[in-house]
Amino acid sequence: MHVCASLLATSLLTALPALAQASPPEAGPPDSVTIAGLGGGAVREPYRGMKTRTRVLPLLIYENRWVSVALPTVDVKLGHTGPVSWRLRTRFGFDGYKAKDSAFLAGMARRKESLWLGSAAIWDAGPLGELSVEAVADALGHSKGRVFALQYEKRFEFGDLAVTPRAGLRGVDQKYVDYYFGVRPTEALTGRPVYVGDSATQVEAGLRLTYATGKNEMLFADLSGLKLGRPVENSPLVERRYQASVFAGWLYRF
């Protein structure tokens, strides 16, 4: 449901906060962390006739006591309640498409990317893993939609190799689904009937692998699958019930 850049960014945001919080054993907690690198990946989109999208992206994160920047997401840290970190969140989303992206979408109006604003909370449960929740809304008013996400992940270390499985739920409201997957009366054709979307609950699962190649370097790979939910799957614009992505890259911590 996202274009390639959005899913690559999502994978990046999943990987980098944990890396930013990690310190070499001999060092104490840093006042700030900067990590940069290069990554690339591919996303199999659910839209009819849309080809698998690939992209190479520069990767950057900066984190200190007040902000966490992992473009295209910026968090302002509001403080802690025990192990829970509270944040204001802004993120540029790459959801959407242009009619030229697929022959089946010819005649459809462009569905625009947007800026999402809201809040997030991250619960670091130590050896039990990490639970995060976010609620954001379309700040530019293109879809006027809202998105809610809940995710759990746990990191397992095997020397230089770390394996982090994750699972989550994602709720998208009626306005979001209708904007990105609906078909307006002016866009309807034979084989592409009018469709009014409804709110959907989506299920996501993923696996991230990281391998330390040096004191400040590592390689990583991330695989992810998203079950779209029936109101999205029923759209005449959609030809599969899931979206899959793979993302890999190299990171260096300064």
TrEMBL record:
UniProt keyword list: Cell outer membrane, Membrane, Signal
Q: Which Pfam families match?
A: MipA
Q: Which PANTHER family match?
A: MLTA-INTERACTING PROTEIN-RELATED
- Record's keyword annotation contains NAD: no
Coiled coil (UniProt feature) = none
Signal sequence extent: 1-20
Family, according to the entry, reads as follows:
Belongs to the MipA/OmpV family.
Give the location in the cell.
Answer: Cell outer membrane
Q: What's the name of the protein?
A: MipA/OmpV family protein
